[in-house]
Structure formats: structure tokens, C-alpha cells
TrEMBL record:
InterPro entries (UniProt xref): ATPase_NBD (IPR043129)
Protein name: Type II secretion system protein L
Lineage: superkingdom: Bacteria
Length: 387
């Protein structure tokens, strides 16, 4: 990825356009070309022209340097352990060095070592303006720095350094630019003039931009891939909203159908008990109706079956011996012409086998209901009979 470096130049007249000194490096940080005082609106076309001349693809990362005089850069001395939460306490530590409320200032911090942290501070309203200026340039990633962020390790005591056309001094842990008028009157010439090679090497040595990139927190810039991801996130969110709306509507329809089904079930139960009050209550309407139908069929047939107690007990014993799984007959009762059997088994499959065994031994019995008692299943069977 090619690297485009800008030194932003603020116009002396408010209505005049911003300009920038421009450096273009290859993807391997080899210097290609530079230009002085290029209008911000013309930079995209200039970059395109240079890349076409070098037969390179149109993808660049942008590193922009804010005007040094509009920021405050300082090396703070901290106590051991403070580096863990330096971003929270840096504004308070910087308050005595600034001439405006810290609430109006944007801070970024980079821990240098356990005793020192580099702080860059820029007015928030000015950061908004800088963000708009940088947005005029097309780039995959965008970073904004104070020039001082590359210089704080380059000074000896009482030393002047020139970088990108500006002279700097590092005094009492404060790294600041010197006005041209003062530099011209000073008898001391800059001890170091840092050129394009220094800029190139400094950018190569930058292992992490965190803490020097002013585009952090509320001023964070989105890369092209992040904007694309954000688009898909918004699309996913809208899809989720539509899905949630559909699910809510389906839930509402299911609720309406459930209410209708409950109403119909209650009406059917009442109708059944009106026709067969001797049932007492409805446990399983389908099974109870089937049982009543079988009972009526058996009464309509020629009464050649002897459902005497002896006959029923014999059939029950035969059915019991036919079942190999664990089971236990707990109750035999006779009420209103119906034998009632309560049979316990380890699972419901065994109760179903008991029903099949009754049918195999010609005993007209049906499973009325099944309840769970402790670890056993208890099935209630009914047999139409007579004494």
C-alpha cells in the first residue's frame, strides 16, 4: 500500500483554501515524489497522476500532520502503575499546562516507559475542522498526528531541530514550534535538519499508531473495509428487525389460534360431559370417546362374552405373564359397570405393550390416562364388564 504524507498548512486568511506539502512513498516506503503547497482539493488528482506514471494501483494510506502550533505536545512524568489508566488521568495532569478547560480538548496518550507518557492535545472544535479537511483526500486508512510525535526522542538539552520547514525546541518536557520571526532573530542555528529520509525512517519505525494518532475515540476514522462492514451491519440489523417483526406477527397469530383451539376444546369437553355425565371429568377426550364407542359396540353385540370377575382376572393374569419388562398391578376396582386397573411400569413403552397384550388375549381394555409417580409411570386402564 502506498503511503501519502501531508503536512497540513492552515491559511492565514480564513476564507482561503487549505494547502499541504505532500510526499508520496511506495508500498515499501521508497520515496517517489513530493510537492509543496498543493491545494487540498487537488491532491486526489495529483496522486492519481503520480500513480499512473508509475503504473501503480490507486490505493494509498494517508498520514497527515496537523499544524504544530495548534497542538500541545508534552512528555509527562508519571508514577509507577499510573500507565494502566493514563488515558483517564492525563487530562487532569495536563490541566496546569493548558490555557483552556480540559473538557474542550481532545487528548491522546502513548506510554513511553513506566515513568513517562507522551501526550498530544488539540482543541475539539479544531479537531472537527481537521477531520473535514482530511476527508477531502481519498485513502484506505487515515491517520492524523502532531509533527512533534516523531521528534521527542531526537533532542538534547537546549537544542533546536528543524523538521518539515518548522523549527522546534524541547524545553521542560514541552516540545513546541518556534515562530519563524524568533528563529530568524536567534543567533543559534538548528543543530539538526530532519529531511525526507528521517520522515521515511520514522514512519517505518512506527510499530503502533495508538497514542499518537489523533483519530481516536470520538474522532476515530473508518477505513473503507470498516465502512463496508458497517453497511452490512446495518443491513443485518434491518433484516433482524424485519425477522423480529415477522416472528412477532407469527406469535400473535399462533396466540389467536391457540385461544380458538382452547375455546373449541372447552366446548367439546362440556358437550361430552353433557352426554356422558358418569365420566365425571375429561382427562383425554379422544381416548374417552373411543372407550365409550367401544363400550357401545360391545353392548350392541350378542352378549356371548362373560366379563365376570373370574374371566377378567384370568385375562389380566395372562397379560401380566406375557410382559417381560418390570411392571406391577397396583389396583383393580369396579365402578359403574367398568373395571378400572392401575398398572405401574418403568416406562410408557411397557404400558403400551400391556395394552397390546390385553388385545392379544381378547380383553377389550383401553388405556385411559398415564401419570408419573416418582420414577414410575402409572397407567389407568378401563374394561367394560358386568358382575
Amino acid at each position: 500500500m502506498h503511503q501519502l504524507v501531508l503536512q497540513l498548512i492552515e491559511p492565514s486568511v480564513i476564507d482561503d483554501p487549505w494547502t499541504a506539502d505532500v510526499w508520496l512513498f511506495s508500498d515499501k516506503m521508497v520515496f517517489i515524489v513530493s510537492e509543496q503547497s498543493l491545494a487540498m482539493a487537488d491532491i486526489d488528482a495529483w496522486v492519481q497522476e503520480q500513480l499512473n506514471a508509475n503504473h501503480s494501483e490507486r490505493l494509498v494510506d494517508l498520514i497527515a500532520f496537523a499544524p504544530a502550533s495548534r497542538g500541545h505536545a508534552r512528555l509527562l512524568t508519571i508514577s509507577k502503575g499510573q500507565e494502566r489508566y493514563i488515558s483517564d488521568i492525563a487530562p487532569t495532569l495536563m490541566e496546569s499546562f493548558l490555557a483552556q478547560p480540559i473538557e474542550d480538548i481532545h487528548f491522546v496518550t502513548k506510554v513511553v516507559d513506566s515513568n513517562g507518557v507522551w501526550v498530544s492535545a488539540v482543541d475539539r472544535e479544531y479537531m472537527v475542522q481537521l477531520s473535514q479537511i482530511v476527508d477531502m483526500v481519498t485513502a484506505v486508512k487515515k491517520r492524523l498526528l502532531l509533527p512533534q510525535s516523531l521528534l521527542y526522542k531526537r533532542f538534547d538539552a537546549e537544542e533546536f531541530v528543524s523538521f518539515m520547514g518548522t523549527d522546534y525546541r524541547f524545553l521542560n518536557d514541552h516540545l513546541f514550534p518556534i515562530p519563524h520571526s524568533f528563529a530568524a532573530q536567534s543567533a543559534t542555528a538548528p543543530s539538526k535538519v530532519l529531511d525526507e529520509d528521517f520522515l521515511r525512517q520514522s514512519l517505518l519505525d512506527m510499530k503502533s499508531w495508538q497514542g499518537v494518532n489523533l483519530f481516536e475515540r470520538e474522532f476515530a476514522q473508518q477505513s473503507s473495509s470498516q465502512k463496508f462492514a458497517r453497511f452490512w451491519k446495518i443491513g443485518g440489523f434491518l433484516s433482524a428487525v424485519l425477522l423480529a417483526g415477522s416472528c412477532t406477527w407469527l406469535h400473535y397469530e399462533a396466540s389467536v389460534y391457540q385461544q380458538q383451539a382452547t375455546f373449541i376444546e372447552n366446548k367439546a369437553n362440556k358437550a361430552f360431559l353433557t352426554l356422558a355425565p358418569e365420566e365425571g371429568r375429561v382427562v383425554n377426550l379422544k381416548r374417552q370417546i373411543e372407550g365409550r364407542l367401544r363400550s357401545n359396540e360391545s353392548q350392541e353385540k350378542v352378549d356371548d362374552q362373560d366379563y365376570s370377575p373370574y374371566f377378567v382376572l384370568k385375562k389380566i393374569e395372562q397379560a401380566k405373564q406375557d410382559i417381560k419388562e418390570q411392571n406391577e398391578l397396583q389396583l383393580i376396582a369396579f365402578r359403574d359397570g367398568v373395571y378400572i386397573l392401575e398398572w405401574a411400569a418403568a416406562d410408557q413403552d411397557t404400558l403400551a405393550k400391556i395394552s397390546k397384550s390385553f388385545a392379544r388375549f381378547k380383553l377389550d381394555a383401553y388405556l385411559d390416562q398415564v401419570v408419573r409417580e416418582d420414577k414410575l409411570y402409572v397407567g389407568s386402564y378401563r374394561i367394560q364388564g358386568m358382575l
